[in-house]
Amino acid sequence: MAGIKDVARAAGVSVATVSRALSGRGNVSPSALAAVQQAAHDLGYVVSSTASGLASGRTRNIGVLVPVINHWFYASVLEGICTALMREGYDTTLYQLTKDPAQRHQIFSDFLQRQRVDAVIAVNVELSETEVVALHALDKPLVGVGGPLPGVPTLQVDDEAVSALGTAHLLSLGHTRVGYIGGSSETDVDFRVPSHRRIGYERALAEAGIDLDEALCVGADFTMAQGYTVAKQLLGNPDARPTAIFAASDEMAIGAILAARDLGMQLPRELSVVGVDDHELAEFFGLTTIRQLPHEQGELAVAMLLRAIRKEEPARAHTLGHELIVRNSTSRPPADH
Amino acid sequence: MAGIKDVARAAGVSVATVSRALSGRGNVSPSALAAVQQAAHDLGYVVSSTASGLASGRTRNIGVLVPVINHWFYASVLEGICTALMREGYDTTLYQLTKDPAQRHQIFSDFLQRQRVDAVIAVNVELSETEVVALHALDKPLVGVGGPLPGVPTLQVDDEAVSALGTAHLLSLGHTRVGYIGGSSETDVDFRVPSHRRIGYERALAEAGIDLDEALCVGADFTMAQGYTVAKQLLGNPDARPTAIFAASDEMAIGAILAARDLGMQLPRELSVVGVDDHELAEFFGLTTIRQLPHEQGELAVAMLLRAIRKEEPARAHTLGHELIVRNSTSRPPADH
DNA sequence: ATGAAAGCGCTAACAG
DNA sequence: CTGTTAGCGCTTTCAT
User: Fold this and answer.
1) Nearest-CA neighbor of B2 among A61, A47, A137?
2) What letter would DSSP give residue A334?
3) A49: nearest CB among B47, B76, B114
């Protein structure tokens, strides 16, 4: 395996010049640069990241903290991060932060302390006080995606605005009995996304001058199966059935669509449904939804982080855009008889 | 940031002893061990992975190659890998191998050459001749999951047996017209999984003495949407409609279920459907399927790799188990009238 | 079982 | 713009 000395010898320059030429730091004459690149290419030389990291303190590697990988949203964000980092020549090191305290402790007190990462991206992870302290103690650039962390600049969608928009879409079509499928108290712990969405729903109702009906609001765990179950409850109620449902995630919304179908209802004639995410299945089910772009969120997080690493500017919190995608799951409510 | 010298001083021993005590290599007296551990804990000392890696050549980091992240199967395998590696104190560095030749070249000629990984796991990636050569040239332990790579020990399910089992299940229920939804020529390129599954389907038919009917075999791209589309074609045929469908993935099988419902068919009375995977949605749809356990596959790959790294034994190819999970999507065919 | 010391392969002053 | 050289923080002989 060729080393920097071999390249130096082959190019007829010193190792310092090779280092400068290959890293782009410091001045190198065009001729030396060309000679070094040629030699490096011929020898198949690649800088050793351990040696370079030890000497410079830079690793060209970013740690990514995620709560789960096997989930549409997280996997999408991760893909965006990974793609963007690779483009910049950075490696992506993945840390799955489970609920196991021992494992979490290991991550914060060992893995992240090993001097292996230049910076950290935390995707929707919920951290304890001490964990946040440990993160900050790394004294490395830090960016959050999706979940607000104390003192960590975060990219977020405005969940309240998202659900206000979804609800308003239904109201503007003429619906007055709009059900809400949100988080249960259990999932509520996660960053209050559910409660923010609930607030947006209520705000939209209030702005339309419609009283909130608690009987129309149910909680689920963001899965299709639970969306199905709770939607059946909502739709089975003989005297308080909603004509529309706003669900806080596409998976729950799809569950609601399937529940309505199983009840023999015609969509969207008898029931309108709106979700949130623009999940990969949303189009197939013709689901009207509020799109968020997790892939782009990941890319954006990387862009912010790199700017911070390069000291161009500190990372700052940022609100991400969202967009109403109208498909076939929404229409005017059935005419009253 | 405390270094090994600080620990040595605090423990009253030499840095060599600290290194030995903390790495578990070489002999250390119990008293010295205790003193070192105490000192390290007090000082919050963690071995610098760059320094340790440079000096020892071991990085405690594994590179994982995946074609996509945002997909149930790959995300599950990745989760299994990540969990298992973490348990062993290893980091997971993720490389998404897209179709972009420039990016692929970067991964094989830069990223993997940086001396940052001790070994590589390749999940279902399809590599060119030169890429395989580059991988082997790393001279590091290598394990494949799901897709056979020349010269790389691989964990695989027996795709032929899987689909023979799924098809046989339907035949044993009495079906004689069993449709097949497999890969299209486009996805066929990926490791011949589709064609292996096709072969298993045909074998099961042959064993049951049933002639293959090409009209009952259609290709799709493994998504729910295409499964839906092609199933409609199959089911809409007035004089050659199958009474059962074996789909090479759960997502396509679910698409077929939805297609049948939209045609007003009663499942499983008028149509039986079997998938492959035991996807997270399979249970919700009551889908009978052949389960494979991607999470476990990831864990197994790690176990093999670590044994190879520790020189206990070379990695060897291995066939993974599968299991028929019977739910509500299969039953006897409707009685002929 | 332990310590001294020589690297590991590169970067970054520093001097020129 | 370029070369010399002293580390970066650990591991690992080699003695003892």
Assistant:
1) A137
2) P
3) B114
**pLDDT of A255 over the 90 cut:** yes
The pLDDT value given to residue A192: 56
Which residue carries 């945002």 as its tokens? B70
Tokens of B240: 């050659």
What parts of chain B have a pLDDT lower than 50? 188-189, 337
Q: What is the DSSP string of B208-242?
A: TT----GGGEEEE-SSHHHHHHHHHHHHH-SSS--
- The token pair that represents A232 in the structure block: 């059946």
* Residue A274, strand partner residues: A246, A288
> Which one, of A268, A239, A237, A238, lies nearest residue A253 by Cα?
A268
Is A212 (CB) below 7 Å from strand C?
Answer: no
Residue A155 CA and nucleotide D14 C1' are separated, in Å, by 55
Distance CA B169, CA B155 (A): 25
**What stretch of H or E contains A96?**
strand A91-96
For B296, residues 6+ apart whose C-beta sits below 8 A from its C-beta are B80, B320
Task: Decide if A77 contacts A146 (C-beta within 8 A).
Answer: yes
Q: Please provide the size of chain B in residues.
A: 337
Write out pLDDT tens, residues B94-146: 999 999 999 999 999 999 999 999 999 999 998 999 999 999 999 999 999 98
* B221-253: pLDDT as tens digits: 999 999 999 999 999 988 889 999 999 999 999
| Residues whose CB falls within 8 Å of the CB of residue B288, separated by 6 or more in sequence, listed in order | B169, B272, B273, B274, B275, B324, B325, B326, B327, B328, B329, B330
Domain boundaries, chain B: 4-47, 61-156+294-320, 159-293
Q: Across the interface, which of B69, B93, B280 has its CB nearest the CB of A91?
A: B93
A267: which chain B residues are within 8 Å (Cβ-Cβ)?
Answer: none
Q: Do residue B79 and residue A68 have CB atoms under 8 angstroms apart?
A: yes
Whether nucleic acid strand C comes within 7 Å of the CB of B28, the answer is yes
Pick from B224, B225, B232: nearest CA to B261 = B232
Collapsing DSSP states into helix, strand and coil, what is residue A154? strand
In DSSP notation, B34-63 reads HHHHHHHHHHT----HHHHHHHHS---EEE
Compute φ and ψ for B119, nearest 5 degrees. -165, 170
Neighbours of B3 (CB within 10 A): 15
Tell me if the pTM is above 0.85: yes
Contact B125, B146 (CB under 8 A): no
Q: Kindly provide the b/e burial profile for residues A26-64, where b requires at least 16 CB atoms within 10 angstroms of the residue's own CB.
A: eebeeebbebbeebbeebebbbbbbbbbbeeeebbbbbb
Question: Is B261 part of the contact surface with chain A (CB cutoff 8 Å)?
Answer: yes
Whose C1' is closest to the CA of B8: which nucleotide?
A: C3
Question: In this model, does residue A55 exceed pLDDT 60?
Answer: yes
Superfamily the domain B61-156+294-320 falls into: Response regulator (3.40.50.2300)
The pLDDT score that the predictor gives to residue A311 is 82
In whole angstroms, what is the distance from residue A325 CA to residue A287 CA?
8
**From the candidate CATH numbers 3.40.50.2300, 3.10.20.590, 3.30.70.260, 3.40.309.10, the one assigned to the domain spanning A159-293:** 3.40.50.2300
Judge whether A61-156+294-320 and A159-293 match in fold.
Answer: yes
- The radius of gyration of chain A's CA atoms, rounded to the nearest angstrom, is 26
